[in-house]
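name: query_chain
kind: protein
chains: 1
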Amino acid sequence: MPSSSISSAFWCHVNPLIIFGFESRWGHQKYYMTFGFIIVIYDEPQKQIDACVRSVRNVYPDKQIILISDGGPDIVVPDGCRFIRGEHLKELRFGGAWVHRLCEVGLTLNTDKVIKIDPDTRVVRPFREMPDADYFGELMGNNKIGVNIIRGGCKGYSSRVLRQAFVEKWFLDSVFVNNDIFSYKKRGRSNALSEDQATAWGFFKHGVSFTCWPEIMNENFNIPRFATKHRVFEPS
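structure:
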């Protein structure tokens, strides 16, 4: 049994759903699984970033957190976070380079799973279960690209799929460059890359399955059965 001093992992059941912290009634094999968090920021206020990090720390005080700046202004890096200052890539002219960078940075966590959250996401309680899947979150349809997507806010990836996507350069494919089906309007700009749509297309093309994560809420509602909420904005 691994040392109990390693607090960034849980005993989990090998099942379609991994159940954290519970003994199996069926005697399934268990294994030691780790995960960490990535938060990508751009021009969010400092208090928004701090509140997001604090929500993770309140629930998971020992988890790794990496902040990636997508070319935004200087910030005060919250204690205990690793900070990566990147160039601004979330535009169609750079294709899927934003997602490619996420894959690369996610691998540096050296964990089994990588959880990506937005700065306006709040973690409100521990995850009770996590899909044993390569790509998981709130699943929804998207007619623009013709495949289902996993909504941003909070989503998870296996390190296995991030490694394959990075090594094989899935998201550096020219199909993503200046392709309007991967665009969305953000703060008056129409040339922003939709991370959700680009990731969905790249994974779908390479046969990656998408799995619903029932604990994720990508709206700002206080519903106990959800471990997260989204679109939470700190007062200015």
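note: The first strand starts at residue 9 and ends at 13.
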